[in-house]
Specification:
α1 runs parallel beside α4 and α16 packs antiparallel against α17. The chain is an all-alpha fold.
Amino acid sequence: MVAISLAVTASAFIFINGVAFLIPALEAERGTALAEAGLLAAMPSFGMVVTLIAWGALLDRVGERIVLTAGSALTAAAAYAATTVHSMVAIGAFLFVGGMAAASCNTAGGRLVSGWFPPHHRGLAMGIRQTAQPVGIALGALVIPELAERGPVAGLMFPALMCTISAVASAIGVIDPPRKPRAAATEQELANPYRGRPKVLRRIHITSSLLMMPQTVTVTFMLVWLINDHNWSIASAGALVTVSQLLGAVGRILAGRWSDRVGSRMRPLRTVAIAAALSMFLLGLIDRVGWRIEVVVMVAAAVIAVLDNGLESTAITEYAGPYWSGRALGIQNTTQRLTAAAGPPLFGALITAAGYPTAWLVCGLFPLAAIPFVPTRVLPPGLETRARTQSVRRLRRWIAVRSGEWPDGTPRPGPLARRQRLRRRGRAAAPPT
């Protein structure tokens, strides 16, 4: 289930983010302005915003298998349709429709993995699944620019093919996680999680939308920044973007495992937010000065920018529960896609007016603003129970030791008996005279 979810979601993100890798070809072949090309790259994200909540509601009703299969098939159809037209308006329209369909994979893939794993392993499993985005972007950066040298339309054939394969894999291999029927669920399990206190889900949504901006900006403009400002070739720039995304994929797995070990998704998330703000500020300063390590800092910023998604998605499924997690993930991804859709045109215009260093500095303000919203003091139900059990065990062990007993109930020897035992051990270990 993890492998299928990863593959299907990676294919969707090849389509969603693949247009960003067509920007050099659009500039060279059609003379498209950077702001206009950024708007075209944002069309799949705009399409996702429209249908994410609807796909989530459908997911709560019909399950993961149907949603993943239908969404991948419709995304493939839209990508194929975009290759048959030449008007920029028509291409943008099909990209918008494809984004509407690709939203299904982003929601259903996460809930599929979350439903098959217990809380103390869920962070690692979701971290592996969340590598789908950087892996998909890495594949797109490696393949699409090379295909786009024959024309922008040729570059769209790769996501069309990958989404077709994903639709077949979903139809054959996906098994919905075991859940109680809604008729057997309690009133508390069916309750709306957005009406409870504290407002954890809302704070996670705000945090994730703010942390989405560094990810969007680095993914969209890293390639063209390397080509235009540093005179890299298309192949070299695409390879570096691929490496940064693969490093980000490894980082997501480690972040998920980290959250399992500490028993919290939010404490690691706050650390990621702090690191993302610092890396973007450092990139802006170094890029303005013109030091040679600016490319290394860009790679570090791109890696840090993608570490948070698995933590947020895991937390959403845990707080919302099995009967609301589809809609909650839809709302979560909607807030993220709104940021992802607004980022490329806004920062494209900012780069044109003020340059890349200023854009990096402005981008760092978004993760800085996210830090106060991270709800670090609240644990989800599964991890809260586990943490309480561990605390009780530690307390019992401390009481037993202080009361003169070991945790298993056997008497604990007093200070005199311990000293005598140590003396006997010392005489036994002493060498013969």
